[in-house]
Structure formats: C-alpha cells, structure tokens
Amino acid sequence: MEGIFTYIGGLFSLHHDNPDHVAILMAIHLVLVALIIILITKMATRSLRAVPTGTQNVMEAFLGGVIAMGKDVIGEEHARKYLPLIAALGLFVLISNLIGIIPGFESPTSNINVTLTLALVVFLYYNYEGIKAQGVFTYFKNFVHLGEMHPAAKFAMSLLMYPIEIVSHISRIISLSFRLFGNIKGDDLFLWVLLMLVPWIIPITPLVLLTFMAFLQTFVFMILTYVYLAGAIAIDEEH
Fold first, then answer.
1. How far is CA 96 from CA 32, 99, 120, in A?
2. How many domains is the chain built from?
3. CA angle 69-79-84, nearest 5°?
4. Per the domain annotation, does 158 fall within a domain?
5. Distance from CA of residue 56 to its chain's centroid?
C-alpha cells in the first residue's frame, strides 16, 4: 500500500506502489519470520535441561499448550501425533502476526497469498490423513450420514447432500485464509492510521489489543486445524 514505510523497504528502496516491490518485501519478511523461528528453536534446544529455564521453558509451555488444546478435540494420542504440524503452523502464524505490530515491519499474514497457502496446506493434509485412516471409498462415503431410510430416498438425498458437503469442505480454504488475512490486514491498517495520527507517541492500549488479536488469530487457526483433522480421521459417528 502506498505510503506505508518499512525498514526493509527503506533499506532496499522498495515501495508499496510497485507490485514487484510488494512481492519482494513480502518475501523478505517471510525469510525474516523463518529466521526468527529458527533462532528461537535453536535457543530453546541449545542446552536442554531437566528443569527448563528461559527459552526452553517458554517453548515447552507452548508445546504443552498445543497438546492440551488438541486433547479435547482429537484425543491426546492424535494431539501428540499432529503436534509438529500444529506447532509449526502456530509458530509461523504467531511470529508473522506479531512482527507486524512493530512499526516499520509488515505481517506476512496480512498478504492473502500467504494465508491462502497455509489454508491449502491444512486442506490437503487433513484430507490426506482422512483417506489414509479410512480408505478412499469410506472417507468420501462418510461425507454424508443419512441414517436408515428407503434406498431410493437415500440415493436422492445423496445427490443433494454430496455437492453441498464438497462445497462445504472447499469453503474451509476460504474461511481459513480470509479470516486470518482480514483480521491481520485490518490490524496493520489500524496501526498505520494510528502512527499517522500520533507518530511520536504510540499509545500502549492499542498495542496491547493488537497483541491480543495476534495470539487470538493464531489460536483460532490452530484449533480449526485440529477440528478438521478430527473430522477427517473419525472412523464412525461415535468418534
């Protein structure tokens, strides 16, 4: 967006009014987020201790929270199984959200291309896990549960319900990507307007609110991924 200043854009003379420069800026911010995540994980695992301290303590608390989050949704065994995926997504989304709160930086998650890619990863992975757990035929057959009814009526209802269910699954891509993109983009615009109005004094309350929203959107993305995985690998209605 024209007029938004970023340190990286100023360093490399990149401007938001040039589409090519926007893509380059976003790529650089993505690399920056990746480097921050690598640095955090290196610090957490550099000297592992039985009684964790510092970064190791924070990361263990984070991983424990991810497992606790998934335990009620998908069971502890599966929560641990999918921990690497959920934790990696959570770290990426959280750092991407938080970096945009710092004046002079931009959230990668404020770009629809980034959030759409994340949503596609989740969509493809939970469908793969569903097919792997149930088999192709059973997985797609369980898209619709019609119960006991006359075969002719069941066939007619299937013709109606299957397209609806397929559209519902595809809409999850839109839901995941646009929810995260819209909220973070809105937060970035809010901060931009705030800095235009009061460039020398940054009010603490709005920054606290933006930080809360960054954590909240990360939680929503992670819990929805767990929910989609739970629905995909469920073998029968009791699960």
1. 9, 5, 18
2. 1
3. 100
4. yes
5. 23
Looking at the domain assignment, is residue 5 inside a domain? no
Three-state SS for the chain is CCCCCCHHHHHHCCCCCCHHHHHHHHHHHHHHHHHHHHHHHHHHHCCCCCCCCHHHHHHHHHHHHHHHHHHHHHCHHHHHHCHHHHHHHHHHHHHHHHHCCCCCCCCHHHCHHHHHHHHHHHHHHHHHHHHHHHCHHHHHHCCCCCCCCCHHHHHHHHHHHHHHHHHHHHHHHHHHHHHHHHHHHHHHHHHHHHHHHCCCCCCHHHHHHHHHHHHHHHHHHHHHHHHHHHHHHCCCCCC
CA 157 to chain centre: 34
Q: Between the CA atoms of 169, 170, 174 and 175, what dihedral angle is there, to the nearest 10 degrees?
A: -10
Report pLDDT for 238: 43
Higher-scoring residue by pLDDT: 237, 197? 197
Question: Residue 148 has what pLDDT?
Answer: 62
- Token pair, residue 185, equals 């983009």
58 in Cβ contact with 209 (< 8 Å) = no
Distances (CA, A) of 155 to 115, 141, 162: 38, 12, 10
Tell me whether residue 226 is in a domain.
Answer: yes
| Residue 153 structural domain | 55-233
Q: What is the pLDDT of residues 181-236, one digit of tens each?
A: 999 988 888 877 777 776 656 667 788 888 999 999 999 999 999 999 998 887 44
For residue 184, being part of any structural domain is answered with yes
Handedness of CA 197, 199, 204, 207 (dihedral sign): positive
